[in-house]
Write a structure and sequence with these properties.
Methylamine Dehydrogenase, Chain H; globular; single chain; mainly beta; 33 strands; 7% helix; 428 residues; 3 helices
């Protein structure tokens, strides 16, 4: 017994010293960060929220879509604005459609398709706008919640915390670089897109009365040959728009789907681990073809001919991929290969027309590149507007329509890519 007592005394003494030492090694640090709080609404109320209203102030611009002379601007989580864009130098708000939970839309003929929380609704736009069809819980995936997150409200928080003195100063706060991305500004069923603004014969995006319009690259909806393709985080759903908005198929893809770009033959999906390619099968259920994997990151994609342009964004939410423009060779559709990579600051959406490539580089603004030499795109910047936090862009003829944190901007650009700002719709 005495031996046990003798051996335990030094141990107790050592434990006491460790305890005292650890007390002496504590420091305090002041931290300031943005705290995001969800604003929720009951799903039953969301489904009853539809209302055509007089023009409203633009608050939180998100996805954009053009159809003929009309420009549609999603106001994240609350609905969308209809704009007469006959004169891009003087766009005119004409009405606002309240549609709680709205983050994305597309249009064919006189019918507009948009999400209302987890549902996809068909809205007749000839005469008084009205809902004429609904697909319930298309975007809900495995989330069976009875409420919808309409938006995230942020406030700056400052607190004093106790830290380990050796690691003091290493805390980085909340590094979100784009306050209006779909994570901080949208509903819970969305993280990022339809077919993008590309002038290419593979695209089926006419703007006639029976055709479809043009969206940005951050879209989750794509209309091709009378089919509406919708991607959620986990799945792809197909609707037949020529047969009373009939759902044709729905199947799981895997977590992390963000955007979709449709051509006559293929669907290109941007996910946070790679670009997936699906065969449209002439409107039947799409089937998997191939993929090009990458480090975890957010990545919209646009396609021109047999080349895909992918912007990959690495940050705290998206992952640790190196942010940049990735150029992909699609000549062998079952074996896509990386041609070149060009570093960017914080890229979001992009658009391409002829040899002009525009990239929304977050805080670095809207950047314009000559892409004629695919190996040197990053060294071929023509012009830019660094005064905006750029989110997505549509290139239509010689007009570039930009959605940014500050509002929606329109630019005229020439064959050399020089920008001339025409108009601005400022966000509140």
């Amino acid at each position: 017994m005495s031996n046990i007592i003798k051996s335990s005394l030094p141990i107790a003494f050592v434990l006491l010293l460790i305890s005292l030492g650890s007390c002496q090694d504590k420091c305090t640090e002041t931290r300031t960060y943005l705290k995001y709080t969800p604003v929720k609404k009951a799903l039953t109320e969301v489904r009853e929220s539809f209302k055509a209203m007089p023009t409203q102030e633009l608050q939180n611009p998100g996805k954009i879509y053009t159809f003929g002379s009309r420009l549609y601007i999603v106001d994240r989580g609350i609905g969308f604005h209809v704009v007469d864009n006959s004169n891009p130098s003087a766009p005119i708000f004409t009405e606002f459609i309240q549609l709680d939970g709205c983050l994305d839309l597309a249009m064919k003929g006189n019918t507009l398709y948009a999400n209302q929380g987890p549902d996809i609704v068909a809205i007749a736009m000839d005469g008084e706008p009205r809902i004429i069809g609904r697909g319930e819980d298309i975007l809900s995936d495995q989330n069976n919640s009875d409420s919808v997150i309409l938006r995230w409200e942020s406030r700056e928080v400052t607190e004093v915390v106790e830290t380990n003195c050796d690691n003091q100063g290493n805390w980085r706060g909340n590094p979100r670089s784009f306050a209006n991305d779909d994570f901080s500004g949208g509903v819970s069923f969305e993280s990022s897109s339809t077919s993008s603004s590309v002038s290419d014969n593979n695209r089926v995006n006419s703007s006639g009365s029976s055709g479809s319009g043009v969206s940005g690259s951050m879209a989750r909806f794509s209309i091709v040959a009378g089919q509406l393709y919708v991607v959620s985080d986990w799945s792809m759903t197909t609707f037949d728009l020529d047969n009373d908005f009939r759902q044709i198929s729905q199947f799981n893809i895997g977590n992390g789907v963000e955007t979709i770009f449709g051509t006559q033959d293929y669907l290109y999906l941007g996910t946070n681990v790679g670009m997936l390619i699906y065969d449209r099968n002439n409107g039947n259920t799409p089937t998997y073809v191939s993929q090009l994997s990458h480090a975890r990151g957010c990545d919209p994609v646009v396609v021109q001919g047999d080349i895909a342009f992918v912007t990959l964004r690495g940050n705290s939410r998206c992952g640790q991929a190196e942010s940049g423009l990735y150029v992909v060779n699609l000549a062998e559709i079952r074996n896509p290969s990386l041609l070149s990579m060009h570093p960017m600051a914080d890229p979001y959406g992009l658009g391409v027309r002829d040899d002009i490539l525009m990239i929304c580089d977050g805080n670095a603004g809207l950047r314009v590149f000559d892409k004629s030499n695919l190996d040197f795109i990053g060294d071929s910047e023509i012009s830019s507007d660094a005064s905006v936090k750029a989110y997505d862009v549509i290139l239509q003829d010689d007009i570039a329509i930009l959605s940014a944190e500050e509002g929606v901007y329109q630019y005229e650009y020439d064959n050399a890519g020089k920008l001339n700002k025409l108009s601005t719709l400022i966000a509140k």
